[in-house]
Amino acid sequence: MEELTMKLAKWLGISVAAAAAALLLVGCGNSSSSSGSNTNNKTITFWYGGDADTAVKPMVDAFTKKTGIKVKIQSIPWSQYNDKLLTAAASKSGPDLILMGTTGMANYVSSKSLMDISKEVKSDKNISPNNYFEGSVKTTEFNGKYYAVPWYVETRVLYYRKDLLKQVGYNEAPKTWDQLYDAATKLSKRGKNMYGFNVDFSEPTFGFMFARQNGATLIKGKTPQFNKKPMVEALDYLAKFYKNGASPKQDLKLAIGQSFGGKAPIPMFISGPWMMNSVKQDAGLKDDQWGVAVLPKGKDNNMSNTGGGNLAVFNYSKNKSAALKLLKYLSTKDSQLQYYKNSDSMPTLKSAWTDKSLSDSRIQVFRKQLNDSEPMPLIKQWDQIGQNYLKAWEPVAMQGASVQKAMDQLNSQTEQLLNK
């Protein structure tokens, strides 16, 4: 157990204590891990983050009927998923096929836990990178090799109250940073505890996304660029929303019906496709009262953030051939559309977006934004960098601290992380 913990810490660049906690939480004797080494029957194990019963089980059952390959699906809450994968990576015993969050890919590629599927990707036109959104493909490719196939995708767009924006002179969503600031300022003048736009200081990608819109290159090689002019300018822009009362300085702890419905204390915010149903079900709004739009353009672009999930084969699986068959089956257009209907997770295959199930005008806004969307830097330290950013940003939001000093601090911390 001690040796396993040390290996885990070394491979994934985390502390020994964190590695030990992961091992103790999950347990080295995971009963599901033996299925990955079972070569006496056609049974493979598929680890899925979330509830697989409605999302993927019908599709997997159809795969079994077609191929005769049985699949044991293990539904794992996302809160526990990384711990399970850490243990599998360290013990070299686990699933055959894995649902991988895009932000976790770098960690598991660096620990050699994911199978290099470059040969399959380059030889099978059905899973060719050309079929997918560029931002999604970037999350699967490392040093010229492919370790996964994109499965579902998400990006961020602007949610806005059409009726309230009309009251301040905007018949459509703001298209530029200047318009966003102007509209938010006017909306904040509606009365006490009223705002115009939510500058989300609990989302670690938020500031970096705006920095890219201002032309920032976040990291060059192993050198962070967070304290350079493009990012500092972008964050100074965001800080203005706090300073003039156009954005709340802290989380108001409001449900979507309270923040976006009714009088809408926060009538504009940026979020992903998962928020669509929440607005429809809980905000109590008529269809013509709200909409979504591509992000307002900064100095350079209106770049958004690409996220989602990929399908990868566990490198230590003894059923790789069968796992690849399931991966390819789940990657077809029909399967991606079925998965969207079961889970609301948007397909990464560009060809799937012509289907009538995705014809809603709001859904098509996400399709348009995906053309201008990239993942955060695909390095194993990125999650820690994101958390450090939130800590650096908090005094800017709460106390009006200097953005330049905050970014100098973050840059220094990041240099140390990248050069360990």
UniProtKB/TrEMBL annotation:
Signal peptide location: 1-33
Cited Pfam families: SBP_bac_1 (PF01547)
UniProt xrefs under Gene3D superfamilies: Periplasmic binding protein-like II
Domain of life: Bacteria
Record key words, sorted: Signal, Transport
Keyword Signal: yes
UniProt-listed InterPro entries: SBP (IPR006059)
Family from the record: Belongs to the bacterial solute-binding protein 1 family.
Full protein name: Sugar ABC transporter substrate-binding protein
Organism annotation: Schleiferilactobacillus harbinensis
